[in-house]
Amino acid sequence: MKTLLCGKGGSGKSTLTALIAKSLSERGCNVLVIDNDESNFGLHMQMGLELPDDFLNFLGGKKNLVGKMMEAFPKGEKLSLFDHKWEISTIPEGYVTRKGNLSLIAVGKIHEFGEGCACPMGALAKQLIQNIELGENDFVLVDTEAGIEHFGRGVEEGCDVLFMVADPSYESIRLSEKISKLADNSGKPLYYILNRAEGASREILSCGISEDRVISTVPIYESIFKAGLLGDEFHIFVPEVKMVADFLIEHKSK
Ligand SMILES: Nc1ncnc2c1ncn2[C@@H]1O[C@H](COP(=O)(O)OP(=O)(O)OP(=O)(O)O)[C@@H](O)[C@H]1O
Ligand SMILES: [Mg+2]
């Protein structure tokens, strides 16, 4: 099962990606997290892993990838970046960090002033997700950058299910309408996780989002906030996140 988490900036995508990954791995699943946010540097800390080298470097770096894209697109050719499929365990070493049954890939980060846009990362993420073959007990979670640009780049194509993380804000309610349409266009099922949603704010948020698609509501946890602030690995049991892990395990067996 390959799941992509999306939502507005700061809604809790990376926090939930790390917590769901940990929860699945505690249940004995193999989990690969694909960090597809070119700007942020905290996800690996929350997973308790080193940040791997940019996967972009496996293909010779951004310039090289842009060269391949420029060569293929004017001729109307399909860009094909990989010549064989990988399993989670056969992803080339150096571009993945691992601990137990948790693995992490970072598609590519912005490192230099003026190095160019992140479009090549989107093209790479799309093919990378599609290039990984999953076994019975394997899960992929894709953490995305804020907003909806990844829909424009077609990153969702290789995923089985989409989770929108919605925090109690007007922007999340409006964005949920847009993402619902984009998910329909992509043909992928969309579910919502309401995050930092409690009491009246949860009520208002759920009025704007289809309740039957909400799989969990995660309240504000001081322990999550503190670990996020300090860059600590999550060692937190969150029952509302376990519900999401249960959902994925059940959904997979259908
Ligand atoms: N349920 C929660 N309880 C308390 N704090 C939370 C919770 N969820 C997220 N946070 C905090 O909210 C902030 C934003 O979370 P996070 O970085 O995961 O959001 P994001 O959607 O990944 O942001 P970005 O769009 O920048 O990638 C962090 O400080 C995080 O610790
Ligand atoms: Mg994030």
UniProtKB/TrEMBL annotation:
Source species, domain of life: Archaea
Alphabetized UniProt keyword annotations: ATP-binding, Nucleotide-binding
Pfam families (alphabetical): CbiA
Presence of keyword DNA damage: no
Molecular function (Gene Ontology), one example: ATP hydrolysis activity
Domain CobQ/CobB/MinD/ParA nucleotide binding as annotated: residue spans: 7-200
GO biological process: negative regulation of cell division
Keyword Nucleotide-binding: yes
GO cellular component, one term: cytoplasmic side of plasma membrane
SUPFAM superfamilies, per database record: P-loop containing nucleoside triphosphate hydrolases
Protein name: Carbon monoxide dehydrogenase accessory protein
Organism field: Methanococcoides burtonii (strain DSM 6242 / NBRC 107633 / OCM 468 / ACE-M)
Gene name for this UniProt entry: cooC
